[in-house]
Amino acid sequence: MKRSTKNLDVAQRLYRRRRYAQVITLLESQVFLYRNNYRYYYLLGMSCLYTGDYAGAFSYVQRALDIEEDPEGLLGLGAILLRRRQTDQALRTYLDLIDLDPHNRRGQRALQWLRTMEDPDDVLQWFEDRRIQKILPRRPIALPAAFFPVLLATALAVLVAAAFSQGIPQQFFAAPEPRAGSELVRISGHAPDQLIDISASEARFDLTPQEVEALFRRVGDLFQKGRDNLVRKELNRIAASNAAPGIKARAATIRDYLQRPDFSTFQDGFSYTEAARDPRLHDQVYVRWQGRVANLHIGESLITFDLLVGYHTGQVLEGIVPVSLDFAVLLENNAAVEMIALLSVKPDGSFHAQASSIRILSPRETAS
């Protein structure tokens, strides 16, 4: 059966829009599915190159070329080798490119630059001043940001003109529908005895009815703004308070409407220090932590390791957190990584993290 290319098509569109971090997030977990697909490794490798992850770029683009020898892949590999200061291997790569495509102008330009280069360190300047773009595969033209207001204004003008000339149904201009679950964050009109549980004498947060209402208003404001990670924390506060059982049940239901973040949408993170200071308040929140992999174990359907939080620079160890992943990813012990994960708090107050996104950090990101 032919493998689905849906994710690759999405990744191709993201790549054309130069959203390289999103390409990496989307594709890295699909390595087993596309293990023999040139386009998969090319898109992933070139996205790593453009985000500064040269080690990942080398691995993925080299794998792409193992599957299919292609001029664009050779151009990418040549630039990666230059950045790694492997000029001899880069030269051989460009020679192979010219053998494959004798009229490739970018490959010819790269060879000319190499022949006239006096100091191998000069290649670093090619990356600093973006000259390297002239010997990389062509990228889709990115429209300048200033163009979009003009485009939007033009589109609105056409729309208004059409409305007056032909008549557009009034509901066309209606306000967008409220977010699903919005009805759950409104508790106005409740009597005070409906808001608090007077028998909850050992509640961690002893709130008045007015404070329960204010807390729910905050949850509602955050929910409407899409600040879901802060909502999770405030729902923990409600759960640990003397709020009435009905209020707590409503708060628990709100969780079903919260979105899982990725590297392109993550906001409102919590540091390891914040989470460790008050573990219960950070149960079931998402964190975005960097560190190094230790005690890696790769099973048939689960990968587990310990994340040495904060130790990606090799200097400060903030803490050690057990991590599990239920998707495939290329990892090795001591790899410097960044992950987005859902925290779970154990009875003793320690953490377990279920990673939902992970990426390898580039050497630049681990430099102290």
Automatic annotation (TrEMBL):
Keywords: Membrane, TPR repeat, Transmembrane, Transmembrane helix. TPR repeats lie at residues 71-104. Coiled coil: none annotated. SUPFAM superfamilies: TPR-like. It comes from the Bacteria. The keyword Acetylation does not apply. SMART domains: TPR. The keyword Transmembrane helix applies. The chain crosses the membrane at residues 141-164. This is Tetratricopeptide repeat-containing protein. It comes from Alkalispirochaeta americana.
